[in-house]
Amino acid sequence: MFFHPMDFLILIAFGLSIWAQFKVKGNFSKWSEVRASSGMTGAQAARTLLDRQGLYDVPVEVVPGALSDHYDPISRTVRLSEDVYYGSSIASLSVACHEIGHAIQHKVHYPMLVLRHRMFPVVNFASGIAPFLLMGGFLLHALNLIGLGIILFSAAVAFQVVTLPVEFNASARAKALMISEGFIRNEEERGVNQVLGAAALTYVAAALISVLELLKYVLIFFNQSRTEED
């Protein structure tokens, strides 16, 4: 496919994404060296917050891998990487409490999380078939295939956009709870902000790339439509 002017913006967004990933690793590594004043491990902080929110039935498990932390809404399980689970650093507590933020969102039926869960089956199908429709449409100059591909790709883009408030809200909940529960002191908030802020930036960059790609496909579609009409 020929180079499109939008590709320049996409490359910039892609560069932002790579930079954000370096920031995540860098900030996590930096604040992994700083022990939280509370002395709690990520596992202890997670269990404490879950219990105080009445989520006694949500287990906290340790999983292999670096920064593999996540909340599984299907099994309602918080899974923490070894560094986070056993660590007692600012970074460990920040990541652990962020995942608890998602568990709390699930409990209170946070609207954007509910929407994200409902979108997932459609997006899972759409993201798998959209690239083939777009590729086939451009190779065959078939506007109907391109149009269908754009519609399906739009679902995937919408999913990433919806993910943004979900992640920002989980981080906001995490920070507020860490402060109110006394897990961190005022001077430690900077570390929490850096760890969670860098992680949020990766989602922003991913969403930006998707939106720009979608806009590129839409512009190409309309350009080809005008060409065929002429």
TrEMBL record:
TM helices/strands, residue ranges: 122-140, 146-170, 191-212
GO annotation terms (biological process): proteolysis
GO MF annotations, alphabetized: peptidase activity
Domain of life of the source: Bacteria
Keywords: Hydrolase, Membrane, Protease, Transmembrane, Transmembrane helix
Pfam families tied to this protein: Zn_peptidase_2
PANTHER family: MEMBRANE PROTEASE YUGP-RELATED (PTHR36434)
The protein's name in its UniProt record: Putative membrane protease YugP
The organism of origin for this protein: Effusibacillus dendaii
Organism lineage: Bacteria, Bacillati, Bacillota, Bacilli, Bacillales
Gene: yugP_2
